[in-house]
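Running this now, will post back.
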Amino acid sequence: MTVQIHESWLKPLSQEFEQPYFKELVQFVRTEYAQHTCYPKKKDIFAAFDHSPLDKTKVVIIGQDPYHGPDQANGLCFSVKDGISHPPSLRNIFKEIETDIGKPYPESGNLERWADQGVLLLNATLTVRAREAGSHQKKGWETFTDAVIKKLSDEKEDLIFLLWGGFAKKKAKLIDKKKHHILNSGHPSPLSANRGYWFGNNHFSQCNEILQNKGLKPINW
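Update: finished.
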């Protein structure tokens, strides 16, 4: 695995790429992809960064793991490729958008359209072995993506972080709350959503309101 990442991220993250943990991670990922079916495709591992350059990023959504089913993962958290049926969490995201801002439920679950507007859709772990959820956790990805969140917090201002569920909420400690906006809620997974922790959070309208108040273009969710 060679690190092919948008040039806007290269310099800010260059120190991470030189760390021993990252070199070990690269070797681990290279071996996994050689010996097993893994997702997303190699070219999509850093897709979140490619679609949302550092200077264009204004919203950050944090997921945990890529989808581990065939043809689902495309390198963006919660997103699936065009033509792939929507996983339960994504369905609940679209339902909340429908209720919150009145946008009809979309046909495609491909969230590249969000990412291209400056929404960084960042999974904490960027790769996974097929049909084995969490199989690439604790191999170094979390160290890297924590560094990304910290770098965003340090170098940018007025970012909006959408932290959904207990795992994402723990990332708040990496974010300077005086400079940025944090919106918390339960996770969109059925387990959390059906208990009343997701629906009605109005994160999509709140996010756009913050952007508009800062004179920035709202996201076309």
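The first helix runs from residue 7 to 18. More later if anyone needs it.
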